[in-house]
Amino acid sequence: MERIEVDLHERGNAAVLRLPPRRFPGVLIQGDSLSVLREDIELVRAALRAGDLVAAREWADHFGAQLDGLLGHYVAVLDRDGITLPFVRPSPPPGPAATDAPDRAGDGG
Questions:
Q1: Most buried among 2, 7, 95, 109, by the most CB within 10 A?
Q2: Can you tell me the distance from the alpha carbon of 12 to that of 73, in angstroms, rounded to the nearest whole number?
Q3: Is the Cβ–Cβ distance between 3 and 70 less than 8 Å?
Q4: pLDDT in tens, 67-90
Q5: Contacts of 108 (CB under 8 A, 6+ apart)
Q6: Distance of alpha carbon 106 from alpha carbon 43, whole angstroms
């Protein structure tokens, strides 16, 4: 393990920080949150394997909404701190944002 100083732009479950010598900040996702993201994408895969396109779309929409939230948080923090984005500013996601997870019944979890 190595201890270093970092530029902390935002604390929290998705902390935004810049590690030297990187030019742009990144997002630190806590391990439990990363595990949930992995679990949700596996639910998309399982639904696709089962041929359940409705469930696959619902889980994909939920997963996309989670990623949209992380990216939106990142963009807001960089905007607030006057840092140019390291990518083209994303357009708002189409349609209503999926915020609740689909029903997990029948997914084995």
A1: 7
A2: 11
A3: no
A4: 999 999 999 999 999 999 999 998
A5: 46
A6: 11
